[in-house]
Recover the amino acids of this structure.
């Protein structure tokens, strides 16, 4: 049975870095640990919270149940066919290490998802995405244990109900499963997506006309580094809110008062609004409550600027939601999981 640690500080176990303690804490380092843990599940303090790298988690107060950190390591090339490599990565693998492995081996498809903090096991949960690519584009199969009956299950990508920062694991299977590994399908041929954001522009500035996979990963890493605060220096969880999806009719109403509102068409009838623009335009950059504030360079990122408590961050996020609703009539939904 994995070792039980009591009264574990969670400060260094989530990227917001606010102080909170877990009554019980376990680290699962192997399949055997997972099996032993599930076998003893009746005696484990509840509720459970499954933790990866804590890059999308905000601990708002002390946790009275058990935090279960998924720490299983290992990346394996399982097989290949004419067009694809099939690579399996265990849940605890650092996501950026997985992307680096793909880039180094010229397995194409993951390169735009470089420098996203967190673990492989969490990638399917909110279908992480960046620079025009989402995890769903390269996930082939997700393997997970059902916490209730210890059964090992698998779901093909098409059954995972992936959507914008969404999946079956945030809905029907929320809090019911422990993802232990993910099988990825990576292309043998490049199919680079360079039109998103400043990728093309920066490649041109560097004089790269025929980019290799490593050029793209390095360029996106640089662009991200300029925009987002480094979690090692400033506590944050990346984009705090999802970009709201509204109808074109709603957009036209907003445009009457805010003609410069930033939006991206996602279908003939709907658009995604840039939540960062809404917050910035509301004059909230730098706005602070207690030790939490809105980042000066990137309004979508809330930061732990001065020993914030979880309550400070929650209060700030609620204030922003209230303001955005009042100004634009739009609901902002957090991307970050409050625990
Ligand atoms: C600076 C910064 C930049 C970011 N940029 C992006 C970005 O570009 N795109 C993007 O999509 N996200 C981004 N994020 C958010 C974050 O990186 C992702 O959500 C990432 O997948 C979180 O991984 P994690 O392991 O830290 O998850 P955690 O925060 O540990 O957990 C997140 C959720 O997944 C569940 N979970 C975790 N592991 C498992 C498992 N093995 N089995 C079952 N449930 C599990 C948790 O219970 C929780 O509900 C960013 C975050 C930061 C700090």
């Amino acid at each position: 049975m994995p070792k039980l640690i009591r009264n574990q500080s969670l400060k260094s176990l989530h990227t917001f870095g606010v102080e909170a303690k877990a009554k019980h804490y376990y680290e699962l380092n192997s399949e055997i640990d997972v099996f032993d843990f599930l076998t003893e599940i009746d005696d484990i303090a509840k509720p459970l919270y499954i933790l990866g790298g804590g890059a999308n988690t905000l601990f708002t107060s002390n946790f009275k149940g058990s935090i279960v950190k998924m720490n299983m390591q290992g990346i394996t090339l399982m097989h290949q066919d004419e067009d694809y490599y099939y690579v399996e990565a265990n849940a605890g693998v650092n996501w950026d290490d997985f992307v680096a492995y793909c880039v180094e081996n010229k397995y194409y498809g993951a390169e735009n998802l470089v420098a996203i903090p967190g673990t492989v096991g969490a990638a399917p949960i909110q279908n992480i995405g960046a620079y025009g690519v989402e995890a769903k584009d390269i996930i082939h199969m997700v393997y997970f244990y059902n916490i209730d009956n210890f059964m090992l299950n698998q779901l093909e990508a098409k059954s995972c109900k992936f959507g914008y920062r969404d999946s079956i694991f945030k809905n029907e299977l929320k809090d019911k499963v422990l993802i232990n590994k993910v099988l990825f399908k990576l292309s043998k041929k490049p199919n680079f997506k360079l039109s998103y954001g400043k990728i093309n522009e920066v490649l041109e500035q560097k004089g790269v006309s025929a980019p290799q996979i490593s050029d793209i990963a390095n360029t996106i890493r640089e662009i991200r580094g300029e925009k987002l605060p480094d979690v090692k220096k400033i506590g944050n969880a990346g984009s705090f809110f999802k970009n709201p999806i509204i109808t074109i009719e709603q957009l036209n109403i907003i445009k009457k008062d805010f003609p410069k509102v930033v939006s991206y068409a996602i279908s003939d009838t709907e658009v995604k609004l840039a939540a960062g623009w809404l917050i910035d335009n509301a004059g909230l950059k730098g706005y602070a409550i207690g030790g939490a504030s809105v980042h000066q360079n990137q309004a979508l990122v809330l930061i732990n600027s001065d020993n914030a408590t979880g309550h400070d961050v929650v209060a700030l996020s609620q204030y922003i939601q209230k303001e955005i609703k009042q100004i634009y009539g739009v609901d902002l939904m957090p991307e970050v999981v409050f625990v």
Remarks:
- Helices lie at 31-39, 95-105, 199-205, 213-227, 248-257, 275-281, 310-328.
